[in-house]
Design a protein that fits this description.
The structure holds two protein chains of two kinds. By secondary structure, chain A is an alpha+beta fold. Chain A is about 55% helix and about 15% strand. In chain A, helix 3 packs parallel to helix 4 (about 160-175). By secondary structure, chain B is α/β, with parallel strands linked by helices. Chain B contains five helices and five strands. Chain B has helices at about 10-25, 35-45, 60-70, 90-95, 110-124; strands spanning about 5, 25-30, 50, 80, 100-105. In chain B, helix 2 (about 35-45) runs parallel beside helix 3 (about 60-70). The chains are: A alpha+beta, B alpha/beta. The interface between A and B is medium-sized, with 35 and 34 residues.
Chain lengths: ~300, ~120
């Protein structure tokens, strides 16, 4: 009899325990659903905020840059010579501001997996020569040479718009940080990869700053380099995006006072690496559906 | 003379593109919102449409959808000019309506847009 009562009490106790566990688990589940919902709402708010910022900050700067470019081109009639330099400064400043906005937004897009890629096959030569052409005025202004010294007809796979931006960043930095001599761009191939090599005779980077190069929001110090204002995001984004496309951006070598060599590598078209990259991006749903749209020049 | 319709709610940007295309001997029609823009497109049948996305009354996406539902509008070249990042759902929606090209306004100059427009019109 005594043992039956004990079993009975134990049974009730066990049932209460199970019931309590179920209640607690349900509460935890409800809480976790609530947290998920809040997270989702936060993500949505963040997306909307970024959308708003991208639109509202870029629009007025775009107008400043566009109008300055039209005045410089003479679309509003001839401009006096003394206005040419100040107007160029307006244009350059607006462009710099837009680049900073783009860099900051790209970080956010990259981190939340919103950047999509349109993988095309193209030759490095085509994109590189276009980038060099746009940077020639800056090189001339700085009285340094900017030359392309070999053929890069090998077809590579990548998103040509992003590749252009990466090259603008690497070659642009080389031009900005070179006071004497020049910047030479060449190509090489190795296994499944083809490379653009950007070599300058600039200020060079010391070992301490080399470590900071590809870290977010890190700017290389030093009196000369500090003259160039930026977000410190260009190389970080460039490398992350290149890696997503199956490639890489790296500092090959650098010596203070002698110069630096940066390389951008991408998978050769049709190589095993190119196919693997395409499959990975497809799986991660990071490919665009169309080749023309979604490209932001 | 080729005619371009510019649908853009920012008056300053609208005038900037208007001036660029007028200087380059285009006929220019302008609209400050999507609703007026769509009506102007269907009335005047321009050779090319420059279309902003974020606009009052009717957004650019709806203008595109309605244009593509129209017999004439089905094939009119449309250049989307936006400062929005075309990501995710927005991008998929845009692709459905087959724009000819999309450009980030802040990353281009009116000269780039004019070149793109001339290229599109030459190929037609």
């Amino acid at each position: 009899m005594g043992s039956e009562i004990l079993y009975f009490i134990f049974g009730i106790g066990f049932s209460i325990l199970i019931y309590a566990v179920v209640i607690i688990l349900r509460k935890i589940n409800l809480k976790s659903n609530k947290v998920q919902k809040i997270d989702k709402n936060l993500d949505q708010t963040k997306d909307e905020f970024i959308s708003f910022v991208s639109h509202e900050l870029r629009s007025p700067m775009g107008a400043v840059k566009g109008l300055a470019s039209m005045m410089l081109k003479g679309d509003y009639g001839p401009i006096p010579d003394r206005f040419r330099q100040p107007l160029t400064n307006v244009y350059v400043s607006a462009e710099r501001q837009i680049r900073m906005i783009n860099d900051i937004l790209n970080i956010s897009r990259f981190q939340s997996g919103r950047i999509r890629y349109t993988l095309l096959n193209f030759s490095f030569e085509k994109v590189t020569s276009e980038v060099i052409e746009t940077l020639q005025p800056l090189a001339k202004q700085r009285r340094i040479t900017l030359t392309l010294n070999s053929d890069g007809k090998t077809q590579v796979q990548g998103d040509d718009i992003w590749v252009r931006q990466i090259l603008e960043n690497i070659i642009g930095n080389a031009v900005k940080f070179t006071e004497e001599g020049g910047v030479t761009v060449s190509y090489k191939e190795e296994g499944d990869m083809a490379f653009v090599i950007v070599e300058d005779t600039g200020v060079g980077i010391d070992p301490y700053n080399q470590k900071k190069l590809f870290i977010k929001f890190q700017q290389v110090g030093g009196s000369l380099l500090q003259k160039t204002i930026g977000t410190g995001l260009g190389l970080y984004i460039s490398r992350e995006v290149a890696r997503q496309m199956g490639g890489d951006v790296r500092l090959e070598k650098s010596e203070v006072g002698k110069g630096s060599t940066f390389v951008l590598g991408l998978p050769k078209s049709g190589s095993a690496l190119a196919i693997e990259t395409r499959l990975r991006l497809e799986k991660e749903m990071l490919l665009t559906l169309n080749n023309n749209v979604g490209k932001e020049k | 003379m080729k005619t371009v319709l510019i649908i853009e709610d920012d008056q300053i940007i609208l005038e900037m593109y208007r001036d660029k295309f007028q200087v380059s001997n285009f006929g220019v029609i302008t609209a400050l919102n999507g609703e007026d823009g769509l009506a102007a497109a269907l009335r005047h049948h321009p050779d090319l449409v420059l279309l902003d996305l974020a606009m009052p009354k009717m957004d650019g996406m709806t203008v595109m959808q309605k244009l593509r539902d129209d017999q004439w509008g089905r094939s009119v070249p449309v250049i989307i000019l936006t400062n929005l990042n075309l990501d995710g759902r927005l991008l998929e929606e845009i692709i459905k309506n087959k724009p000819t090209y999309s450009l980030m306004k802040a990353n281009t100059t009116p000269e780039d847009v004019l070149e793109k427009a001339n290229g599109i019109l030459e190929r037609r």
